[in-house]
């Protein structure tokens, strides 16, 4: 993993505005509020594999993904990674430390070249104080993340590899299906880290599903071709035996 390096070059206001409009956190803002928010937002660009922040770093800002993909993970003492989330365009991350001012709880790494919008804590907190709807949206996002984390833990304990993998692919596909490529930008190793399985076991199942034309494995990612079949595999785990 490479050290953190970023380019702080600016982004046109119109582009920032469009990203904010498409973000779950800011899409309900009035045009006037979004225009005001744009004045505080800065831009950072990270190359693939660069560290955006590390667990324990000061939490001073919120990130919105303008383009690219970011991985949120933690590393154990024996250097094994657990991937909590993959953030795509218009998604946000870094909100927990931003709100409580405590150190970061996980690592954030650029999976691809990324352009990120950055909102500093000193600018964001007054917005929350002046607009209760923003606070409610933040709470909704945090609750969604907690539910997803709890579900991941339950899946690792109770579900088979096939069901875990199918559920994860469907969730990741939901975030990218409106993009031009529809590709889930993630490695098989990282998928294994999400579902708690080895890369070898993950690869074997993915190739089985590729043979059935449920998905297509490409360099640097996966394209889901048959979400209905994956949904059946996720729900009962017996789709593999179907003709």
Structure, described:
With 243 residues, the chain is α+β, with helices and mostly antiparallel strands. It has two domains: 6-155, Jelly Rolls (Sandwich), CATH 2.60.120; 159-241, Winged helix-like DNA-binding domain superfamily/Winged helix DNA-binding domain (Arc Repressor Mutant, subunit A, Orthogonal Bundle), CATH 1.10.10.10. It is 44% helix and 22% strand. The protein is built from nine helices and twelve strands. The longest helix is centred in the middle third of the chain and has 27 residues, at 132-158.
**SS content category:** alpha+beta
Please name the CATH topology of the largest domain: Jelly Rolls
Helix content: 40-55%
Number of strands: 12
Give the overall silhouette: globular
State the CATH class of the largest domain: Mainly Beta
User: In which order are the strands of the major sheet placed?
Assistant: 1-2-9-4-7
Distance between the termini: 43 Å
Give Rg in angstroms: 19 Å
Instruction: Estimate nothing, just give the exact number of structural domains.
Output: 2
Overall average pLDDT: 87
Q: Major β-sheet, in short?
A: 5 strands, antiparallel
Note the run of SSEs as H and E: EHHEEEEEEHEEHHHEHHEEH
- Distinct helical segment count: 9
**Which stretches are poorly predicted, pLDDT < 50 over at least 5 residues?**
none
User: Going by CATH, what is the homologous superfamily of the largest domain?
Assistant: Jelly Rolls
CATH architecture of the largest domain: Sandwich
Strand residue percentage: 15-25%
């Amino acid at each position: 993993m490479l050290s953190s390096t970023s380019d702080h070059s600016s982004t046109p206001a119109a582009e920032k505005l469009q990203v904010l409009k498409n973000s779950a956190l800011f899409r309900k803002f009035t045009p006037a509020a979004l225009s005001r928010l744009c004045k505080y937002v800065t831009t950072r660009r990270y190359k693939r594999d660069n560290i955006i922040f590390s667990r324990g770093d000061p939490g001073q800002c919120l990130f919105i993904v303008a383009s690219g993909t970011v991985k949120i993970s933690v590393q154990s003492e024996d250097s094994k990674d657990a991937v909590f989330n993959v953030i795509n365009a218009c998604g946000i991350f870094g909100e927990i430390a931003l709100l409580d001012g405590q150190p970061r709880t996980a690592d954030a790494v650029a999976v691809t070249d990324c352009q990120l919008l950055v909102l500093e804590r000193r600018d964001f907190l007054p917005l929350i104080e002046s607009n209760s709807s923003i606070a409610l949206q933040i709470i909704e996002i945090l609750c969604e993340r907690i539910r997803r984390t709890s579900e991941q833990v339950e899946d690792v304990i109770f579900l088979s590899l096939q069901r875990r993998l199918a559920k994860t692919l469907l969730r990741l596909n939901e975030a990218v299906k409106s993009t031009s490529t529809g590709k889930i930008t993630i490695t098989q190793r990282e998928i294994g880290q999400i579902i708690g399985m080895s890369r070898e076991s993950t690869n074997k199942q993915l190739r089985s599903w590729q043979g059935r034309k449920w998905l297509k494995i490409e360099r640097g990612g996966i394209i889901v071709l048959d979400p209905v079949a994956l949904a059946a595999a996720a729900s009962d785990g017996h789709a593999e035996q179907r003709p």
